[in-house]
Write a structure and sequence with these properties.
By secondary structure, this protein is an alpha+beta fold. It has a domain of 77 residues: SH3 type barrels (Roll), CATH 2.30.30. Helix content is 16%, strand content 30%. The protein contains 2 helices and 7 strands. The strands form 2 sheets. Strands 4-5-6-7 form a 4-stranded antiparallel beta sheet, with no helix packed on it. The longest helix has 14 residues. The radius of gyration is 34 Å and the shape is rod-shaped. It starts with a helix and ends with a strand.
Length: 144
């Protein structure tokens, strides 16, 4: 008989809810405003740093001519002053072809900012580690 009483007591304990009953003012569901703010929050376990592949700096297929020049691959061969007084930069890339760049010419990843008698300054468009787009100055000087 004692065993039956203990068994009934255990069953009664297991049948009880584990949480306290909700009072009239409390609600078990989150309010709609709480759900909306949860949807706008960023997942803390997803990395905000964007990983780039090794060859992501220059694609395999570039446009022909000046628009296909990548700033990191350029070497300044010389500068020439035109009749108008404007400077022209003579640059070379990995294909050993000479290109003549003037101020404000567009290249693949930026543009020519200014040219002096011994250097050319590019404005290079770069993507940061968090994905933001920035512009930085790259100076290519004549080899001594």
């Amino acid at each position: 008989m004692k065993a039956l009483g203990i068994l009934l007591t255990l069953l009664a304990i297991l049948a009880l809810p584990l949480t306290a009953p909700a009072q009239e003012g409390d609600s078990a569901r989150p309010s709609p405003s709480t759900r909306a703010s949860d949807e706008r929050r960023r997942d803390p376990f997803v990395s905000i740093v964007i990983k780039r592949e090794e060859g992501a700096a220059a694609p395999t297929r570039l446009p022909p001519g000046k628009p296909g020049l990548v700033i990191g691959q350029l070497q300044l061969l010389g500068t020439v002053q035109s009749i108008d007084g404007d400077w022209i930069a003579v640059v070379d890339n990995k294909t050993n072809r000479a290109y003549f760049l003037r101020q404000n010419d567009q290249v693949y990843n930026g543009s020519v900012s200014r040219i002096t008698e011994d250097s050319v300054v590019f404005l290079e468009n770069v993507t940061g580690s968090a994905g933001e787009r920035r512009t930085r100055e790259v100076v290519k000087r004549l080899a001594p």
